[in-house]
Structure formats: structure tokens, C-alpha cells
Specification:
mainly beta; globular
Length: 193
């Protein structure tokens, strides 16, 4: 008789030693709810890694990346194509992401770059690759998320949550964005349900 547990794939996760995360997350990573986390500038989840965020976790984005063209400060999490986010808060323990105030805020927040078809070209940032031919692609699951940010001035992506080429198996539920002035999440292309 075969033990069913022996046939399941075991995914190892690391818990970062430092509470401040910089540059790239290239292996399966867990952000626990036992203390706040800090995202310094733009952090990319890459290499088909999974970022798991526990219910009740607090993540603070430090907008330290300076745009060379306009001098505005920005930062956030970018889930690249093939990478995955698993952020399942609950009604009583939502996940909270807050973009800290910057002197001249640029667009900051959470970007999901999927592999689903995109009809019209849209490039909110240079060097971001998204879209493809996988309509049922999954970039992850986000439930019960509260996202606080100050929108950047101008047109295009002003901050918050942006899904680009997200596939139909990407799940987003009960996401609340808090912005002054009010702005909502953006979605370009893909087959998100």
C-alpha cells in the first residue's frame, strides 16, 4: 500500500531573516503574521517562486526607488510571469499592505504579471513583460486584502493593484483599496475571473 503523503510534492519555503526585503525573491518564501514586513523599493517575485503571505500579515512598502526621469519615489511587489502569490487573509484577519508616504509619490503597490492573452499593448513601466497565450494561467490567489496607498499624479497606473495579463485561474476576492483621492484597481488584458 502506498502512503498518499509520500506521493505529494513537498514545497520548501524560507522565512526571510531580515524584516526588510529587497530586490528579488527567487525561491518559495513565507511572510508570517508575527511581525511587520518591509518592501524596500521594487521587489520582484521571480524564478517561478511562490510568495505566501499569512492571514493577518502586515506588509509596508517603502517607496525608495527613484524614477530617473521625474524624480518620483515608488516601490512595491511585482509578481512576474510564472511566479505565484498566495495571500489568503480572512474577514477577521485580512492581509494589510500599506505604501508609506513619500515626498513626491510615484506609482506604488502590487503588480501581477500573468501569461494570459492581452489585446492591446500597455506598458505602465519599462522592462515589464506580461501576457502570453495561456488563458487559464494562474498568478495566484489573493483574498481579504486591504491595500492603502497615495495615488501618483498623472495618467496611467497611479498605484494600488494592477493586474496585467492575469489568467482565468488567478483568484482575487474581497480586495479593498484605500486611496486619497479615490482610485481603484487596474486590469489590462487577461482572463481574470
Amino acid at each position: 500500500m502506498v502512503n498518499p503523503a509520500a506521493t505529494q510534492e513537498v514545497k520548501m519555503e524560507i522565512i526571510p531573516v531580515s524584516d526588510t526585503i529587497r530586490q528579488v525573491i527567487a525561491s518559495n518564501t513565507l511572510l508570517t503574521a508575527n511581525h511587520p514586513w518591509y518592501i524596500d523599493g521594487w521587489v520582484y517575485v521571480a524564478n517561478e517562486a511562490t510568495l505566501r503571505v499569512e492571514a493577518g500579515a502586515v506588509v509596508n512598502i517603502l517607496p525608495t526607488a527613484v524614477n530617473k526621469q521625474d524624480g518620483r519615489h515608488s516601490g512595491g511587489l511585482v509578481i512576474t510571469r510564472g511566479a505565484y502569490i498566495l495571500a489568503e487573509g480572512t474577514t477577521t484577519l485580512p492581509i494589510r499592505i500599506t505604501v508609506e508616504k513619500a515626498p513626491d509619490p510615484g506609482p506604488s503597490g502590487l503588480l501581477i504579471l500573468g501569461r494570459a492573452p492581452v489585446k492591446k499593448g500597455y506598458t505602465p513601466f519599462r522592462d515589464l513583460t506580461f501576457g502570453g497565450n495561456l488563458a487559464e494561467d494562474s498568478s495566484g490567489v489573493i483574498r481579504h486584502l486591504h491595500l492603502h496607498y497615495s495615488p501618483a499624479a498623472g495618467k496611467g497606473f497611479r498605484g494600488g493593484l494592477l493586474l496585467l495579463g492575469a489568467g482565468s485561474k488567478t483568484i482575487t476576492e474581497a480586495i479593498v483599496t484605500h486611496a486619497l483621492p479615490t482610485a481603484g484597481p487596474g486590469l489590462k488584458g487577461g482572463k481574470l475571473r
